[in-house]
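Researcher: I'm preparing a figure for a lab meeting and need a structural model of a single chain. I don't have an experimental structure, so a prediction will have to do for now. The sequence is pasted below. Please return the structure as tokens so I can convert it later.
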Amino acid sequence: MGLQELIQQMIDGLVAFSTDLLLPFMALTFLFGVTMRCLIWWTLRREYWFAEEFQKRVLRFINSADDDKELSFYVVTKRLLEITFYEAFEIRSIMKRRNPDAIMTWADRLFLIQQGAAKIVNDTLKQIRYIKYDREKPRFLEISKTVFQNNPCFNKVFGIIPISAFNEFLNILPNLFIVGGIFGTFLGIMKALPELGGMDLADVENSRVVMDTFLLKISFSMSTSIIGIVLSVSMTFMNTFLNAEKLFINTVEGFDNNLSILWTRCSHNTLPKNIEDFDENRDPIEVLAEDVVTRELQVETGFVHLKKPIQGWWLKDKKGQRPVLADEEKEKIIKEYESTKENKNHDLRESVNEQEEHVESDEKVA
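Model: Understood. Here is the structure written out token by token.
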């Protein structure tokens, strides 16, 4: 008797839940699923965005590079990854004076975009650092997959919620809505059927009231299935248009293709002794200024420091001679570039200030 009573109480609880709480629960679950799907897609989209920016600079480098020049695969890849990283966050560095948090924007802080991009650069350089250059192309697809799959900033939403587990749950969520709708329908019918036992056929008026109540509860229980179908179809559309697996595959394949292009273009994978490690905490404007000075002085691939004497491997001219610039000419070029850069930044800040003042004046007038 105790077991039967326990089972009956469980059934009664399920019936009560189906009638009162199932529809709100399904609606809240749908909102949660849509929110998580958007967050997962946006997080992976930031990863894809960085890979796209890297591809633009790879193609730009291939179109402008000298075909007769021998290049190191590691040095070229390192330079392009660093340029991609620093240029991507250059505007943030210029405009951060108006942000009380001068470290990163709210999107960077929530989705760890800057840390994730820096992790991509560091992990890629670690993977390709000691690749032996030969005729066979390395397994760049596995390298790319490892780099993106093991990135703690982009395989978790907000760096906390694991994308893989929740993505699997969201993929089966449309089926759960169908099951939930059918489940609510049957439990609603179970609750309505016992009321027919109290119907007295001799009392026509009372019987009609009982039947009307029964049909009303049946129609209400059927609405659970309809809502389940609608939520299932809507969630299926969300999973299709914001497909996390497809986005991740496109990111990995695109990054693999970029590395393959650079590998084909380069002639060796020699590591210079004085090459420096990637530092994601440096000022993007400073690094990009150094890169412009490097190219202006015709220095081989790699960064130089403005605070130190120019270092690097000088390119040879057509006669096989190494061009040498006087210290005065070097300092003149550096000062001219710094002055130009400061003027551009000043003009940009002044333009932003004018726009903000104009907006504030319009708000006061309104």
